[in-house]
Amino acid sequence: MEQLRRQQQHFLVVTYPAQGHINPSQHLARRLARSTGARVTFSTAVSAHRRMFPSLSSPDQEFSDGLLSYIPYSDGSDDGIKRSSSNNNKDAAADNPMLRLKQVGTRTLSAVLDRLSARDERVTCVVYTILLPWVADVARAHGVPAVLCWIQPATVLAIYYHYFHGYDGVVAAAAAAHASDPAHTVTLPGLAPLRIRDLPSFLATTSEDDPYAAVLDDFRETFDAIERGDDGADAAGGKTTVLVNTFDALEPNALKSVEDLNLIAVGPVIPSLAALEGGAAESKDLFAPDEKHYMEWLDGKAEGSVVYVSFGSMSMVKKRQMEEMRKGLKESGRPYLWVVRKDNKEAESIEPEEPDQKGMVVEWCSQVRVLNHAAVGCFVTHCGWNSTVESVAAGVPTVCVPQWTDQGTNAWLMAEEWGMGVRGEINGEGLLEGEELRRCLEVVMGEGERGAEIRRRAQMWKDKAREAIGDGGSSQRNLRAFVNQIANRN
Can you give the pLDDT at residue 86? Predict the structure, then answer.
């Protein structure tokens, strides 16, 4: 009976049009469909949808791959080009892409829900990701429960939650003390003491004019949206449900530290185990990598010998930092695969290596395939959460070089809490020097006791991650229980 009720559910997964949001959302959508038998429709903005499916006859055309249906909404920038500011400043949305996204998205996502209902495909639950709090209001206006999927670690969710619930002054005091005492820590309920560098960067804002202040407001709106609804509360002891891209064994304390929310660990939200083992890419990418070229290059390298370097789909690396990184990679004497995106304006200083050199520079790659290749022995990462959980699930040790947002917290988790990497120390100019990178690589990949322990713990976390998403694992059980919870409400 429970299985039948699950199969009668229709989930609409709505996400922000950026690669770092699309990847986990797609993997969650596939997991929902595969493990519960529910109908699942995936929706992101037209600007991303058209890049995911470039062969469609029109940018907003619907698509089905046999498991998921794809129906985009418009965010007001269907061509992906940011609109210029209004000369007379009468249109506030022209200067604020997030406001435009909310205004246009509210209308167009509502139309998607109406269209599905008219086809007798009524949505029974909307799952949405961060930066889209207005989606919850659209869903509830249609009488549909909305559940947030938090695509950062549970630790970061807990930090933000406590910050917005009375601990903002504690964090502000710690930030003020940081200048004279970098080791000063802040203690939040249920969490280990954290230094300012370990907190999300948006919490270090000291002025309303700080560009990060607006992003912090977006996160505040996300928590306001959670608390406006009672979605899932009936089956969760009166608590609002939030899905989290983590697993029970990875962040047990953080998952229990927010007593007013029902945090459900459903991660790591990555490709299925079958896809990981077969080297297949399941998600639609906004970039188009030449996989044959670099995978064949990796095939020719010794096991655990290659340094993989990538700072994700959004971080921009300055020219001086690139020069220092190249210096460190060369001095390490190890082969390396380095992702330098074409849209990084400083990338012109980094040219592909000659065929007889140790390194390969590519514009993009299938990161999951690379991390699961036997030749890769270390990941130099910006510590975005997708990269973090992908390295955990692949058992690849890390050199952590966090840039902004949640990445400092993620670096703390990997290097200090989980013991599967080291954090590179930056100099007074905010640069990771080449010598420091070389030192970190030697620690992680060398013959010393610390490196051996890091590699052992990386393998341990890999085993735990795959157990969690395997048949009967904790995240698999949690996801099915969540779907049953929604089914019992409908």
Answer: 40
pLDDT digit string, tens, across residues 359-392: 999 998 999 999 999 999 999 999 999 999 999 9
Q: SS3 of 355, please?
A: coil
Rounded distance, CA 481 to CA 475, Å?
10
Please give the Cα distance from 279 to 246 (Å, whole number).
22
Higher pLDDT, 408 or 276: 408
User: Across-strand partners of 41?
Assistant: 12, 69
Average pLDDT score over residue span 9-16 = 98
User: Prior bond to 268 cis, omega within 30?
Assistant: yes
Kindly state the helix (H) or strand (E) to which residue 325 belongs, with its residue range: helix 319-332
Structure tokens at 308: 């993989």
Q: Average of pLDDT values for 35-46?
A: 96
| Residue 356 neighbours by CB under 8 Å, 6+ apart | none
Residues 226 and 85: their CA atoms lie apart, in Å, by 32
Reported as half-sphere exposure (CB side, CA atoms, 13 A), residue 436 has a value of: 16
In angstroms, the CA 487 to CA 490 distance is 5
pLDDT exceeds 70 at position 4: no
Fold of the CATH domain 280-468: Rossmann fold (3.40.50)
What whole-number distance in Å separates Cα of residue 465 and Cα of residue 139? 32
How far is C-alpha 260 from the chain's CA centre? 24
Answer whether CATH 3.40.640.10 is correct for domain 2-155+208-270+471-489. no
Q: How far apart are CA 109 and CA 240, in angstroms?
A: 23
| CA separation for the pair 453, 444 (Å, rounded) | 9
Cα distances from 117 to residues 85, 98, 102, 344, in angstroms, run 37, 27, 22, 43
Residue with tokens 């139309």: 111
Burial of 447 (0-12, 13-18, 19+ CB in 10 A): exposed
Q: Report the distance separating Cα 115 and Cα 98, nearest Å.
A: 25
Tokens of 277: 């083992």
CATH 3.40.50.2000 maps onto the chain at 2-155+208-270+471-489, 280-468
Where helices occur in 76-122 by DSSP H, the ranges are 92-95, 97-118
How far, in Å, CA of 218 to CA of 212, rounded? Answer: 10
Residues assigned a catalytic role: 21
CB 382 within 8 A of CB 361: no
Residue 78 half-sphere exposure toward CB, CA atoms < 13 A: 10
